[in-house]
Amino acid sequence: MRKRLKNIFRLGVKELNSLRRDPVLLFLIFFTFTFAIYTVATGVQTELRNASIAVVDEDHSDLSRQIRAAFLEPYFQLPATLALNQIDPAMDAGRYAFVVDIPVNFQTDVLSGRRPHIQVNVDATAMTLAGNGAAYIQTIITNQLSEFLSRSVGTSTPTVTVTMRTAFNPNLDSSWFMSVMQIVSNITMLSLILSGAAVIRERERGTIEHLLVMPVTPGEIMMAKIWANGLAIVLAIILSLYVVVQGVLSVRISGSIALFVLGASVFLYAMTALGIVLSTFASSMPQFALLAIPFFVVMNMLSGGTSPLDGMPQLLQIIMQAAPSTHFTSFAQAVLFRGAGVDIVWRQLAAMAVIGTVLFLMALSRFRATMSAAR
Question: Which long-range contacts does 108-115 make (Cβ < 8 Å, 24+ apart)?
Fold first, then answer.
């Protein structure tokens, strides 16, 4: 047993030395966990900010001017004024994301108890902006109508007041969410690439023949590749969390980084095993890349990081339980956002460990077959 552990350690050191001499992979690791995190966190926004808006004021009343003045920065740009016949050309040209049309006699109809309609034209080519912006506009108009009626006709204040308390991200800052989810996505991608490249690199350079004449087993070779590549990614994760996420982006991490690193290690155990499985079906890096891309895209899009898992079809939710990324995304959100402890996330850890063991056994079987074919 001691000799086996020594073999695994020495083979892992060899993997780290091989990685150290590969400037392309080193640059990929550095870029992925630094600049890629920062650019996505600051460039991709899910909240409403600086949305272009125009108002068609056919009423020219106090109420219409009050509504127009309520669209304030930083949510909206200063509202432009359009004529009724300019709506379609402006929307077709993409100059405005929203155009609000206030009809003639709007204030008079409101004071008379009628139910006039305000038309809101939305450019839905930007889905997130369209959905959030339409909700903001509806809320703003409703609030202005309530304020105007209470001031003009003495309408009583509503007896129920809705108070919203935002947990874990009080300012609804998308960079808090995007930075952490981008780390999860990058871990998934790099674990596949590094482990697969480690196997294919041996085959392309001819060093796999050297391993065949050494007194080591396929299981030892595979374990060495898993711990060496996993260690490289774990170090990059720690650097990214402390320097980029907490330091540069000033994201508040509520939970334990040590617990997150533990969960990431279990996840890497599963993903590197999957990468080795895929590498046994490819004879070169281009083939491996084409094979790995569908796995990465599916796991990245459907694991719950891009869109909530509960919003997906029930059958798809069941299928995605077999993917380690689904459990890791849930684990990462619980630990880093909500400050969850082991007593809450142990199920995700157990699920990743079980899936990882199944993938490891599959990888070992395939790797043994590949090694036997190479003899």
Answer: 108/61, 110/63, 110/145, 110/148, 110/149, 111/152, 111/153
Q: What average pLDDT does range 195-217 have in this prediction? A: 73
- Using an 8 Å Cβ cutoff, are 295 and 215 in contact? no
The closest of 132, 106, 102, 107 to 120, measured between CA atoms, is 102
Residue 133 host element (H or E)? helix 127-152
Burial code of 30-53, b = ≥16 C-beta within 10 A, e = fewer? eebbbebbbebbeeebebbeebbb
End-to-end CA distance of the chain: 25
pTM: 0.78
For position 345, what pLDDT does the model report?
Answer: 93
- Alpha-carbon distance of 121 to 139, in angstroms, equals 16
Which strands make up the sheet holding 53-57, listed edge to edge? 80-81, 53-57, 98-102, 119-122
94: confidence class by pLDDT, cuts 50, 70, 90: confident
Confirm if 228 and 19 have CB atoms less than 8 A apart: yes
CA distance 2 to 158: 75
Q: Where are the chain's structural domains? A: 2-44+173-374, 53-152
CATH topology of domain 53-152: abc type-2 transporter like fold (3.40.1710)
Average pLDDT over residues 168-189: 84
Length of the chain in residues, anyone?
A: 375
